[in-house]
Specification:
single chain; about 350 residues; alpha/beta; four-stranded mixed sheet; globular
Length: about 350
């Protein structure tokens, strides 16, 4: 687990409060605190754990605020390390919680299903993707599902101003990492809260859920969002405040690097498909990953498969791949330019 840095004063009423994510390699999530006359407004809230809550409360105290004074919180996206403490925050204050409508819809759907139903859905997806029985059984024996946080009560659309008196803080919709991911631009200070959309070193996860869904195009959305964020007026002057790692500048260059990484990944997958049709598991297990495939647990392999599926979905949209075979065990094949796909 990464070392959690100290609370930091970023000037003019802005603070970064790192909230730990216990027993998780991500280490911590930065919660940003903006002081306003009506009470502090938070960007994200952190993971739902006693140690995380204690860090948020004590961090707020170091900024000169009490948790019951919090005016509201904007979620960059619905993932648990960003949204988990919304319920505790609401119980301790009258804070509103805002998110993009697309992410609010995801949370609403998740809240309508039990843990067992969501675990069963993962097992079904792994089976259709061609995962070997030992992987499926390992996950079934010890399923990992994250309970959805309290639902947001305010919708924050693209370009909309956040309810933060004295500050011109506006949403920039950047779908891909999640359907409703938001960056937030603070006018007058040349600051951009990038959430997980743009990180200085690693590329955020972009997955297709369900794994074999033929709807949507999350990676296509993500690449378009990278292009958009890199073309913001004055993008080269912005200081970026991400949810992980460290602050950085040079946003257009970093956005281009992330796009180039995925384009290289798409080319690599196309080359593998050129060797013959493959199930999602077969293709995923042949790719290079940060951690060796043999060392991955079933849940990590499922996440890797979701990322592969997102790339395949974009290749389908570009007419470079197609799925074939039975719907309960599809395979993907390379489409050679100038040829007629088989029916």
């Amino acid at each position: 687990m990464r070392e959690v840095p100290p609370v930091e004063d970023l000037g003019e009423g802005l603070w970064s409060v790192p909230v730990p994510v216990p027993h998780n390699p991500v280490g911590f999530t930065y919660v940003y605190v903006l002081g306003t006359p009506g009470g502090p407004v938070l960007v994200d809230v952190g993971w739902d754990h006693d140690a995380s809550w204690d860090a948020l409360v004590s961090g707020l105290e170091q900024t000169g605020h009490r948790v019951d004074e919090v005016r509201g919180a904007v979620l960059t996206h619905f993932h648990a390390d960003h949204s988990g403490l919304t319920g505790r925050l609401r119980a301790a204050s009258d804070a509103w919680v805002a998110a993009h409508p697309a992410d609010a819809r995801v949370l609403r759907r998740q809240s309508e299903r039990t843990d067992d139903q969501r675990a069963a859905s993962v097992v079904e997806q792994m089976t259709r993707a061609g995962f070997p029985e030992e992987d499926v059984e390992a996950y079934r024996a010890s399923p990992t599902v994250f309970r959805p946080p309290a639902l947001p009560d305010l919708a924050l659309d693209d370009g909309q101003r956040v309810d933060a008196p004295g500050l011109d803080l506006r949403a920039v919709w950047t779908p891909g990492h999640t359907p409703g991911h938001l960056c937030l631009r603070l006018a007058g200070r040349e600051l951009l809260f990038t959430g997980d959309h743009v990180l200085p070193r690693i590329t955020p996860h972009v997955g297709q859920f369900p794994l074999d869904s033929a709807e949507g195009d999350p990676l296509g959305d993500f690449l378009a969002s990278q292009d958009r964020i890199g073309r913001l007026p004055g993008a080269d002057r912005l200081l970026c405040l991400p949810s992980h790692e460290s602050r950085f500048s040079g946003l257009p260059r970093r956005a281009r690097e992330i796009v180039d990484h995925h384009e290289e990944r798409l080319e690599g997958m196309t080359a593998l498909l050129g060797q013959g049709p493959a199930t999602l598991w077969e293709l995923t297990s042949r790719l290079e990953w940060r951690r060796p495939w043999a060392d991955m647990r079933p849940l990590a392999r499922h996440m890797a498969a979701s990322e592969t599926a997102a790339h395949l979905r974009l290749l389908e949209e570009r007419g470079r791949a197609r799925r074939e075979g039975p719907s309960d065990r599809p395979r993907w094949a390379c489409v050679i330019p100038g040829t007629t796909p088989r029916i």
